[in-house]
Structure prediction request, 153 residues.
Amino acid sequence: MNGLLSQGSAARWTIAGLAALAMAEFQYYAPALALLVFSIILDYVTGMVKAWMKGELDSRVGLQGVIKKLCYILGVAVGFCADLLISLVAATMGLATELPALLGLTVTMMLSLNELLSSLENLGQIGVPMPDALKRALAQLTGVFEGRGEEQR
Prediction:
């Protein structure tokens, strides 16, 4: 216990406390957030493998990808903050709201889907065989995410 309150230990306790608070707050959203983290990692890895196989591996492009994915996390945080703000304003106005974090979860799921679609595209470009039905669904979903959903029908 001698080092329990030392500077390094205090930092660890602070980080652990903040992590525990976040986990308690987001316990219901943990599966969606875990899916997002998994899909981000999967997309990054498949993208790196694709670039390596094509001889296009570039550290600058890789760093840009990491920064982009970190910004996804910021986007999710903004969604959850907007949900909190809406709840606080509603409570201030005396309105009872039992709404879940709709904006935060919507952003989380949209980004997860986008990352999973990108991973499938990467796998296809790597040469992993995919059923034709999956290829068609991928093309249609990619069009929806890029704003071409109605034009492809």
Observations:
- Residues 28-145 form one domain.
- Helices lie at 7-25, 30-54, 59-92, 102-126, 132-145.
- The first helix runs from residue 7 to 25.
- Confidence is low (pLDDT under 50) at residues 149-153.
